[in-house]
Amino acid sequence: MATHQARKRFGQHFLVDEAAIEAIVRAIAPRPDDVMVEIGPGLSALTQPLMRALDHLTVIEIDRDLAARLRRQHAEERLTVVQNDALTFDFGVLGERLRIVGNLPYNISSPLLFHLIEYAERVRDQHFMLQREVVDRMVAKPASGDYGRLSVMLQSRYRMVKLFDVQPESFDPPPKVVSAVVRMTPLPLAQILVKNQAALSQVVARAFAQRRKMLRKGLGDWAPLVDWSGLGIAGTARAEELSVEQFAALTDSLLAAGVLRV
After folding, report:
1. For residues 28 and 127, what is the distance between their CA atoms, to the nearest angstrom?
2. pLDDT, tens digit, for every residue of 75-95?
């Protein structure tokens, strides 16, 4: 079988370490009747062991050649191959209780994570391998150097756990960075603090646009409309010091003031 040349434009680094593959599949713990979706199956490093545990698997692959290869290798009743860009794909057509997995290309990881927020109500859990630096930002706590827009937006919708690191030599070609595996479990509706994600996104984006500034200056003309003492936010606070709960309260305050376009 002809080998496949990794394509830089797709950020392709193929997982080849059997021990790492086994650890990831063990963390996912697939069951036969799971509605499993794999993003970027590549050369089937995860696809093959997942299929051994599942009745059916759906994969989303942007690379036309790899999609064609997968169709040749597997029967359609066992593997559905969707040749599409995960960044624009409508995951809602795949059903409910989705379990989404993948070794995500570093160059699209953040935008893809934001795209998937739209489908969180349809998702049971997500297991992704990403650049470790991105995972550290995803799970970061307030007042830490890694805490930022990605941390707040994802933690407002998911419970996240960093599972383990994966070294560069586990891939071909090896990336220049260490990877990590993260588990993302959507929060129950009762635990979601902000019902309007678009509003929260506006507030968080403005707050972290100038993260070194005190929040009261960084929010510009919104600041006078906020009851800072009522929200329990210190006058000297910077965006990176606010918890997800405080961002939720700040968003509600600005929604009530009518300054957010939603």
Report:
1. 7
2. 999 999 999 999 999 999 999
CATH number of 197-257: 1.10.8.100
- DSSP letter, residue 238: B
33 known ligand binder? no
Lookup: tokens for 16: 């080849």
The amino acid sitting at 162 is K
pLDDT tens for each residue of 182-232 = 999 999 989 999 879 999 999 999 999 988 899 999 999 999 999 999 999
The answer on whether 50 is annotated among ligand-binding residues is no
pLDDT at position 12 is 58
Residue 57: strand pairing partners: 36, 79
**For residue 173, cis peptide bond before it (omega within 30 degrees of 0):** yes
Which CATH number describes the domain made up of 8-189?
A: 3.40.50.150
Domain ranges for the chain: 8-189, 197-257
Per-residue pLDDT tens digits for 94-104: 999 999 999 98
**The total number of residues written for the chain in this structure:** 262
Q: What is the pLDDT of residues 140-195, one digit of tens each?
A: 999 999 999 999 999 999 999 999 999 999 998 898 999 999 999 999 989 999 87
Answer for the pair 205, 239: CB distance below 8 angstroms, yes or no.
Answer: no
Token digits of residue 202? 């506006």
Q: Pick left, alpha or beta for residue 247 (phi over 0 → left; psi -120 to 50 → alpha; otherwise beta).
A: alpha
22 annotated as ligand-binding: no
Domains 8-189 and 197-257 share a fold: no
Q: Is 13 annotated as a binding residue?
A: yes
Q: Consult the annotation and say whether 115 binds a ligand.
A: no
Tokens for 76, please give them: 């359609």
Six-digit token pair at 116? 């998937």
15 is in an annotated binding site: yes
* Alpha carbons 244 and 260: distance in angstroms, whole number: 18
